[in-house]
């Protein structure tokens, strides 16, 4: 039974925001940190793809190197989160701060100490950290091994997990093993440090991440029985284009490509539809004796996901995940408006997504990314962003319906980019998501001063009333 308040949201509902180390910290080579895979990705734009370079090339701009300098300004930023009333801050640890090349046998003390300071600052304000262990970054040094194509990297990841589970025992009790793990299907570099894009390589890398995640779940429970360890799904949700049975079947197949990642991590085994697909394609997974038991014993405690938009699929939608654009299904939804970056705005789809996951897995669900990228204008220290308020208001109303009407045990809600940060997709700063404006442009110019947007005060009231005032 949900412990509901008068607002319709549970009394212990986790309200907050989300960031990622590679998109906000900066300080890419300080405190013993060495380059990660995110540190060799240049900036881009809505029209120009980001470039992955071989090492750091002079004259190129790498947004992660400076980002918004959260590494040095975390106290200021967390104080602003606390002013909004956050009870949860979803963040990530930079793996290469803890094990700079990924190959070390002992963790880097300076990196461990930094996150001690960050977690202590959160806890001082009653903000619970929700930590993503690997969020679109891993030590660049692990590429010498072949990255996630090599089973040895599973051991490197577990050594990293053991270090942070032990170090932050009592400070962190909610963890996510991999950010948007299903996105390996169309973004092999960000998710797995791989430039190859063939289907077999994707499936082998994903298999090793499944094994790593399952073993991390078991390890985390052994180290601290209070730990709750979840998986995260990158929000791919689509509707059939029509009631034509062929459209419906193609939509089902499209969703299978994404949902199989959830099936493995939440159920502990490969679904039959994926087994058959791998057989048809002649792909053999590098299965070792005992792996089935590892997957089954390492099921996650909760499922979390990002939600930004919905898609439409039909009989002409290509099923290959690496076609010209990951979400180019060939169909558009005429009933929905879009953001400046062409992402369809579909609040009702969020309620649909929450139901989809709980009906499928019957474990707690959490929305850990939701928001809209927009060009904000700072005038005399003020940003008026009614479009952002409208976006969040409409989506949170659907979360409330999922709880009140559908009975879904939603753990919490953390908006994406609660403070402006570097866009993972385009490397831009002008694609802003936050309640807090950061004075920084797409090329690293600006004062880095923080300014509260109108949405800052709106979200503060939402949290204060536990969602009663939307």
From TrEMBL:
Q: Name one Pfam family in it.
A: Glyco_hydro_1
Which InterPro entries does the UniProt entry name for this protein? GH, GH_1_N_CS, Glyco_hydro_1
Query: Its family?
Result: Belongs to the glycosyl hydrolase 1 family.
Name of the featured protein: Family 1 glycosylhydrolase
